[in-house]
Design brief:
The chain has 258 residues and is an alpha+beta fold. It is built from 8 helices and 13 strands. The chain has 3 domains: 2-71, 3-Layer(aba) Sandwich (Rossmann fold), CATH 3.40.50; 79-96 and 148-257, D-amino Acid Aminotransferase, Chain A, domain 1 (2-Layer Sandwich), CATH 3.30.470; 100-146, no CATH class. The protein has a 5-stranded antiparallel sheet with strand order 11-10-9-12-13. It has a 4-stranded parallel sheet with strand order 2-1-3-4, sandwiched between helices. It has a 4-stranded antiparallel sheet with strand order 5-8-6-7, with no helix packed on it. The longest helix has 13 residues, at 17-29.
């Protein structure tokens, strides 16, 4: 029987208790023993593979350097949890995104900017700021992004083994800038166009994702702009829409990979 370690930060275990139990049960049903491990409390021990849901890039790299397969790999964990690293990667492969401002560029800032934590996730601490009234915070843990005025919503593409398996559009409530489902955004199944899928395929041809998300902003004028990668995706949105196959597909992918 294959034995794997499922890593979480201790602070995230209680909030993800149901999903953790679901993963462990699904793995067991497919002949895999999956053990919950807490970052910082588990010594490096031999196992067949690691599922890293701790967002810890160094943890993934440590196991990889010891010859152990990690889902997701350290490269995707890095770009999925450091927005600047994600935008740099996207720039290198020629994908468009809303402009990032790291400093006051000769006072030629747009009147509105999206302020977000570089290492944040789940829509936490994101705000709309007036660049003429609020000085830019120069700390590296915050970034400022162009505000897309005609934003319809953002699309989450769920990816398993480098293939899109589901797409969901998150639509912010009226007068809100955050579209995350856990923050009150409305969600619908999304059917991407051929052009949009060509862009997604270009991203996926340059980085491997075992199970993760790619988010794109969709505008009323047809703009399709990369927003961010999501290294640790769950099932809340999909389950709300009656879709519950990703855990089964993910474990099948792990089994085939090993």
């Amino acid at each position: 029987m294959l034995v794997g370690k499922l890593f979480y930060d201790e602070i995230d275990v209680a909030r993800n208790k149901v999903y953790i139990e679901w993963l462990i049960a699904e793995a067991l049903s497919q002949g895999i023993k999956l053990e919950l491990s807490i970052v910082g409390k588990d010594r490096l021990r031999k196992c067949d593979f690691v599922i890293n849901r701790s967002r810890n890039y160094e943890l993934a790299l440590t196991y990889e350097l010891n010859g152990i397969r990690v889902f997701n790999n350290s490269k995707f964990t890095l770009v999925g949890n450091n927005k600047l690293a994600g935008y740099q990667f996207i720039d290198e492969i020629g994908i468009h995104h809303a402009k990032i401002y790291l400093e006051d560029e000769n006072n030629e800032l747009p009147s509105k900017l999206i302020r977000k934590p570089n290492f944040g996730h789940g829509g936490q601490d994101i705000s709309l700021v007036d660049a003429n009234r609020v000085p830019m915070d120069k700390r590296i843990d915050f970034i400022y992004q162009e505000y897309i005025h005609d934003n319809i919503g953002d699309v989450r593409y769920y990816v398993i083994n480098g293939q899109v398996v589901h797409s969901v559009i998150r639509i912010p409530q009226k007068d809100q800038i955050i579209s995350n489902f856990t923050k009150g955004g409305n969600i619908e199944v999304y059917y991407p166009s051929k052009r949009e899928m060509e862009i997604i395929d270009k991203v996926l041809s340059n980085i491997h994702i075992d199970f993760g998300g790619i988010d794109f902003i969709v505008s009323k004028t047809g703009e399709f702009l990369f927003n961010e990668f999501e290294d640790v995706v769950g099932s809340r949105m999909l389950s709300h829409l009656g879709i519950n196959d990703t855990t089964n597909l993910y474990i099948k992918h792990i089994q085939k990979s090993l």
